[in-house]
Amino acid sequence: MILSRNSLEILLDLIEIKVSALEIEDYEDAREMTRLKRCRQEVKTTLLNVSSHTAQSSQIPFLASAKA
Fold it and tell me: Is this structure's pTM higher than 0.85?
C-alpha cells in the first residue's frame, strides 16, 4: 500500500498530537509512548523518502531538456 505525501503528513500530525497528549502513569503508557515514537520515526523516514523520490523525479525532465 502506497500513501501520498499528504496522507503521511496527516499521520505524522496525528502521532504528534497523541504523543503530546499522552500522560505516562504506568508501564503500559510508557510502552505506548515508545511505540508512538517508533511509529513517528518510521513515518518521518517514509516522508523523506517520498520527498526525495518526488524531487528526483521532477528534476529528471529538466536535466534531460538541458542536455538536449
Answer: no
